[in-house]
Amino acid sequence: MADIAIPTLLLNAMSRNPAKLQDPNLLTTLAEQCAKDIGMRQDGPSDTRVYPKNGHVGIMVFTPILESHIILTTYPEFRLINITVESCKPFDFMQVIGFWTEHLELEHHMVAILNRAQPWYWSPEKTVRDALEYEL
């Protein structure tokens, strides 16, 4: 894989312990710890929101880091979490995946790694197919 100038990790997974996906304090603490563990510097407090709607609960955590951000979005009813880690400097994708897998008891991972600095990313005439076929 070529060097990635603006690496973005997208991780979707299911938790064997959905109660953890309903705990805003735990999720916020973990997002902030993840940033530290990969050598990122937090840039202000995390913004954590709980969305109870129609009997469903979801939590969103936005943790700003000087290099970019970490975003968590949970759907506890479905045992699902979406995690985005974006940075202007390289980081260890496997370390991040391992961190979340361990702390939230994740399984059934779907992972995408994007390089937002690639030419196709900013080119409006390119299609999603072009993006998927771009050689990293």
Tell me what the structure shows:
With 136 residues, the protein is an alpha+beta fold. It has helices at 24-37, 93-104, 128-133, and strands spanning 7-15, 47-53, 56-65, 68-75, 80-87, 106-115. 24% of the residues lie in helices and 38% in strands. Strands 2-3-4-5-1-6 form a 6-stranded antiparallel sheet. It is globular and about 40 Å long. Mean pLDDT is 85; it is low at 127-132.
Name the features.
136 residues, alpha+beta, six-stranded antiparallel beta sheet, 3 helices, 6 strands, 24% helix
Q: What's the short story on this structure?
A:
By secondary structure, the protein is of the alpha+beta class. The protein has helices at residues 24-37, 93-104, 128-133, and strands at 7-15, 47-53, 56-65, 68-75, 80-87, 106-115. The N and C termini lie close together (5 Å).
Q: What is the residue-mean pLDDT, rounded to a whole number? A: 85
Helix amount: 10-25%
Report the radius of gyration as a whole number of Å. 16 Å
Subunit organisation of the chains = single chain
Distance between the termini: 5 Å
Percentage of β-strand residues: 35-45%
What's the structural blueprint in terms of helices and strands?
Layout: E1 7-15, H1 24-37, E2 47-53, E3 56-65, E4 68-75, E5 80-87, H2 93-104, E6 106-115, H3 128-133
Antiparallel strand pairs: 1-5, 1-6, 2-3, 3-4, 4-5
